[in-house]
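Practice set, problem 2.
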Amino acid sequence: MNALRQALPRAVALIVLAASLTACGFHLRGSDGRFNMPFQSIYLAFPETSPLGTELKRNLRGGDTRVVAEADQAQARFDVLSESRGKAILSLNSQGRVREYLLTYTLVFRVRDAAGAELLGPTEISLKRSITFNETELLAKESEEALLYRDMQTDLVQQILRRLAAIKPV
């Protein structure tokens, strides 16, 4: 009973502290997925079937920026210079079989305004993830690899959004 009397004030103080921190409205800039873009419309030069382009469009449409279908209607043009995925052997076991792979996802892009002037010069974003490999778990490792590529794609979209939001209009 005595221990309960000592613990009760601590628990109440902890609850009050947690409530005051959540009530203050503090959050990291961009942590809610919304970014203030320096332009109202953008054209994305991705193929229609590009999963990266689709995710970027979805994230941009969540904010105040319109994604337009024609380049001449946009205030900004996002040009994809190159996009590549790679898989390289990272390490081998004592029998000479693959133990780890290194997965890479690289995007090089630039952003121009409606007049063709560069707002953001050629920029490369390269992401890397390592994955262990076991030939007895082939199907599980293939799905893990696909999951890692999807995770890298989401990370890539967030990095692109941060770079777009940081553009200073001329």
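Problem 2, part (b): a different protein.
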Amino acid sequence: MAEDEFAELGADRTLLLVDDDAPFVSRLARAMEKRGFLPETAESVAAGKAAAMARPPAYAVVDLRLEDGNGLDVVEALRERRPDCRVVVLTGYGAIATAVAAVKIGATDYLSKPADANDITNALLARGEMLPPPPENPMSADRVRWEHIQRVYELCDRNVSETARRLNMHRRTLQRILAKRSPK
């Protein structure tokens, strides 16, 4: 990376990486270090919140689903301690509802796994009205249905019975849908 590219990061290049996949977070830390960041890693919500409170970073990459809770709790802690922190939320369970929730509480962007270091760097450094290009493969009808169900589920505070009632579907059917991975 050239010296002028480091300048794009600004004076504070601190980066907090929160993910419970140890090999992934280790590889990502090395890759981000090569891009000029000063990474610190955490593998749980508790460790991520502790790091955010002790040493609030300029940048953060937070996994949505962690073993001890929801990564959005870390995003809230980061926003509390450092409102200008640029946060990217990563997840293997991409859903519109969780993306909206992440952005509402202050995430800069939301990426589905697998996301490489270049995608993450671009998301962290994106400024202004820069819009991403339109998708080459738009969502299928099954995916749109799944996204709608996930949105209603999040709006009902992840209450399966209430979600099933609002969607006018059987509770067990909804549970089976929620247990499956998202369609392509």
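Answer key, part (b): The chain is about 50% helix and 15% strand. The chain has two domains: 3-125, 141-179.
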